[in-house]
Amino acid sequence: MKKRSEVDVKETWKIEDLFKDDEDFLKNLEELKNLSDNFSKNYKALNSSEEVYKALEDFDKINGLTDRLGTFAGISMETDTTDANMAKRYAHFTKEMSKIDGELSFFHSLLAKLDKNLLEEVKKAHPEYTYYLDRIIKESKYLLTDEGEKILANLAPTFDAPYKNYNDMRYGDMEFEDFEYEGEKINLNHNTFEEFLEADPRCGLRREAFKRYHDVLRKYENADASVYMTQVENEKRISDLRGYQTVFDYLLSLQDVDREIYDKQIDTIMAELSAHMRKYAEIIKKTYGLDKMTYADLKLSIDPDYEPEVSIEEAHKYIVEGLSNLGEEYVSVLNSAFEDRWIDYAQNEGKRTGAFAAGPYGSHPFIMTTYNNKMSQVMTLAHELGHAGQSYYTNKNQKSLNIDMSMYFVESPSTANEITMERFLLNKAKDDREKLWVLSTMISKTYYHNFVTHFLEAAFQREVYRKVENGESLTADDLNKIFTEKLEEFWSDSVELVDGAELTWMRQPHYYMGLYPYTYSAGLTIGTMISDKIVNGSPEDRDRWIEVLKLGGSVGPIELAKRAGVDMTSTKPISETIAFIGSIIDQIDELCEKLGMYK
């Protein structure tokens, strides 16, 4: 791979739109420190609704600048983890932020202790702060003393350390050796395995790459388990300190989601989805004529020779046409993303795997991916542009204190886009083989990723937290056992769990972000329902969706879904989404039979 300095600049994002250079960044960081210092001096007491409002406005300004600085420091590091300067910049930022957070930690406590009638006056006069204040009131009973909150805020870098440790280990320490396969030199690393080798149609190569990749992971399983359990135990300690009944209650409170909704979602998917996915595994086995279906074969495409190559310019055209139902303003956002370098799609050494979008307040969004010229990447881009579109509308219409949607809802705009693009391509399919490719991509890329990979992470994670809640200390062997049990429960005897399958928990950073994995299936459920409205609904349905995107974090996730026309207090949308997945798999089976693809 090329070094970061060697890639074409047009393939990189225009990060200087946030801050021109380090000097500009440090100047604004100094401004943030000054604003925070003045804030802590000026608002030790709040005696009227107007004083509360002025404090909220000043705090909002601090929050917006913090968001821009944090995004700049954070995403710069993700594009080249080998660049020590980027890591030093981020470390400097987090060190300064721990001091700033400590200095400002009094504010939530101050608001929470105010007379509720005074807060009601503020909400009535300034409704833009209603949900923000409601959340503070709701969580007020879990606040520590001012000194306690300050100590926790100052310890933030320590509590955040496991995530950094995980990334340092994964991207800095793990070394993979290239190998030969039938005279061909195979380059093995995180990117090549997850983007190419894991789905390579050559059985021998794919299974050998799987073995070699996980052999490296196994060398780090004890260290990884130690880092992960530090994260979980830290969360448990904080939940206990704050007085939550369980660590689940603490983590779900951060999302504003009830425990019942969380548990019913995981239980419903385990009960209803597994039969459909076992059928899909059998389709893969028959299509490739495999002697047995193993865990190393699950990422195979049904028809790998068919997927066309698509340039980034062609991807731009596809996405604009496929999402045009969302209106002129939305299309203008899509065009700006491609034309104004919001997207970093270069492939370079040290770039982290996967894709993400960041929407810093007061700036345009940024998207990172590694574009490999495959049609499936069009869906990846559409997905991340869903995040970008949401942050564009939210930032334009909300205070910075209201920009963060609950983690529960945050994948809805992205998956709605992704599925809408897939439906667009399905409607354009000119023959059965193209139709088969789109349908199989919907399963292998969209639903497998969100409703299988991340669901199994969620089921594993729930069991880990249950055991920690019961006072158990877990080792790498325990974590491997838990993940194996969840795989066996889901796949039964339809898939052979080869060595390395048990280490899958080591491959995702989501465990360092609270109860994140289960939210993917929640977001995709909402996204599936919304996509149907975008494609088949009325102009009013689409306008209603744009209005929801504008709301951001100004209302809770269940209310956001409700305003979009989806009731997530019921398991009905989940069951309907699973039935939709089943119908796609049935169509794949019929087309494979019709096209004579079974061996």
Description:
The chain is mainly alpha-helical and 599 residues long. The protein has helices spanning 22-42, 49-78, 84-104, 106-113, 116-125, 130-139, 146-154, 156-173, 190-195, 203-219, 221-242, 247-253, 259-288, 312-322, 328-339, 376-397, 412-428, 432-469, 476-491, 517-536, 539-551, 557-563, 572-594; strands spanning 179-181, 184-186, 343-344, 356-358, 366-368. The strands form two sheets. Strands 3-5-4 form a three-stranded mixed β-sheet, covered by helices on one side. Helix 1 (22-42) runs parallel beside helix 3. The longest helix is centred in the last third of the chain and has 38 residues, at 432-469. It is globular.
Write a short abstract of this structure.
The chain is an all-alpha fold and 599 residues long. 65% of the residues lie in helices and 2% in strands.
